Amino acid sequence: MTADTTERLGPGQLGGAELGERATLVQFSTAFCQPCRATRRTLAEVAAMVPGVAHVEIDAEERLGLVRALGITRTPTVLVLDAAGRIVRRAAGQPRRADVIAALGHAL
Q1: pLDDT tier for residue 16 given thresholds of 50, 70 and 90
Q2: Which tens digit of pLDDT belongs to each residue from 51-92?
Q3: How far is it, in rounded angstroms, from Cα 106 to Cα 108?
Q4: 22-40 pLDDT per residue, tens
Q5: Phi and psi (nearest 5°) for 86?
Q6: Helix or strand or coil: residue 79?
Q7: Can you tell me the distance from the alpha carbon of 77 to that of 74, in angstroms, rounded to the nearest whole number?
Q8: CA angle in degrees (0–180, nearest 5) for 44-83-57
Q9: How many CB atoms lie under 10 A from the CB of residue 82?
Q10: What is the pLDDT of residue 39?
Q11: How distant, in Å, are the alpha carbons of 55, 60, 63, 68 from that of 72?
Q12: What whole-number distance in Å separates Cα of residue 85 and Cα of residue 49?
């Protein structure tokens, strides 16, 4: 996962979903994306393991404006947000659980 800019996301951009107390894992998916399903499971498991971490999934096709604004070019793409909603890491493709946990270290 790579570092990103100081862009901030909040409930308005996340379809009303609240940020996690400590960090948020934001997943951009599409309906027919096979790796998105596995990514959903991985992120949900990590969010359940780490207190204060939320997982939010966004349908990229329904949120094209946000997808374009953030430069999302493929699904799944995962953004790791800190408690203030700043993007601290991002990755495209299906992440490994260890990589997600390591990326969370930059947000916590």
Answers
A1: confident
A2: 999 999 999 999 999 999 999 999 999 999 999 999 999 999
A3: 6
A4: 999 999 999 999 999 999 9
A5: -75, 135
A6: strand
A7: 6
A8: 35
A9: 19
A10: 97
A11: 18, 9, 11, 6
A12: 20
- Helix (H/G/I), strand (E/B), else coil: 8: strand
Distance CA 32, CA 88 (A): 28
DSSP secondary structure letter of residue 77: E
Query: Beta strand pairing status for 77-82 and 87-92?
Result: antiparallel
Q: How far apart are CA 6 and CA 87, in angstroms?
A: 6
Q: Exposed, middle or buried by CB within 10 Å (0-12, 13-18, 19+), for 44?
A: middle
Residue 69 zone, left/alpha/beta (φ > 0; ψ -120 to 50; rest): alpha
Structure tokens at 37: 């399903």
Residue 87 near residue 63 (C-beta atoms within 8 A): no
